[in-house]
Structures are given as C-alpha cells and as structure tokens.
C-alpha cells in the first residue's frame, strides 16, 4: 500500500533516523503530494542509501538497519546486555529438553520415585539416591530398551552335540546313565558360563556407578 509505505518512511525519519531537522521534513511528510517520490529519492541520497527508489524491499531493509544502528548508538548502555528473544527461547527449549538439569535430589518426591523404581526393578537399595538412579539407568539401557528386548526375545537354536566326544570322567556301569550324566554335565557347564557372564555384567555396572576419576580397575590400583 503506497500510503502505508510513505507513512512508514515518515515515521522512521521522525522517530528513529532524524537525519533532517524538524523544519526540513515538510516535503517528506506531505505524503499525498505528487512530488513525494522526488522528495523520497532526495532523502535516500541524503542518508546515503545504496539502493534505487524502485527497490523498495531492499530500501526498507536498509533504512530499518540504519534506524536500529542509530537507536542502539543512542542507548548503548540500555541494550548492550540484552539477550535476543530467539536466544531466550532456545535456552528455555534446552532447559525443557533436559528436565534433570534443575533436579532437586533432596526433594521427598524425587526420593520416593527413585525408591519405587528400585523396588519395581528389584535393584539393591543405597543410601545415595543418585547412585540408585544411575543403577536404574544402566538397567534400563541394557535390559529394557527396544533393542535389548528384541534381542532377548529371539529364540536360540541349539547346536547338535556329539556326546561320544565328551569324556564323562567316571563310569556308572550303565550306558543310558552315562549318557544322561554327560548331558547333565554339559547343561551345568552352560549354566556356569551364563552365571559368569551375569557376574561380569554386574561388576561392570557397579564400576560404572561408583567409578572415581582416580580409579582405574584395568591397572588394578587406585590413585594417580
């Protein structure tokens, strides 16, 4: 809208740019005059605008930039510590995305929630609720993620075993009993291996919970 555009230019000059003295703004303020385009073209030259009068979008952007620069120069102390709204929104978004940043570990509701989760997941209690929370996180990551559940749900196909290749170590005097004893021994070995795997996982989980920067279990020592 031509009228709105001219009013906008007059407002910028009157309120922000103030390149002309008040008494010299008459021609620019006379927005209904047929000579207004000439007055505006002269104004653009006087403020050193690099764009042509026909390039309205570029001209508006440039004049707005000039107005902002002059506004800041007049009120530098007021604006120097200001934070853009976009940055504030980004900070708020980040805080909302990380709800544990301002977590109060001494809050009774927090302690009750951790205790309820620990009981539900059958995790050993600890005096430090953060330690229990870390243990819960490890359990959830390793056992309750979609990948972990899918992997656990996969059926394992057994491999054929040649019993004659496994020495029993004793003789019952009965071939059928000897074969049954061999099967029981193999099953027992499998259970021991599974138990050892769980023990190793438990050790790693405990080390992840109580790890100290100065402790390195691989070196078998504590300290620098």
UniProtKB/TrEMBL annotation:
The transmembrane residues are none
Question: What single Pfam family name could you report for this chain, choosing any that match?
Answer: RLL
What top-level branch of life does the organism fall under? Eukaryota
Q: What family is it from?
A: Belongs to the RTRAF family.
Recorded protein name is RNA transcription, translation and transport factor protein
State the species of origin: Gavia stellata (Red-throated diver)
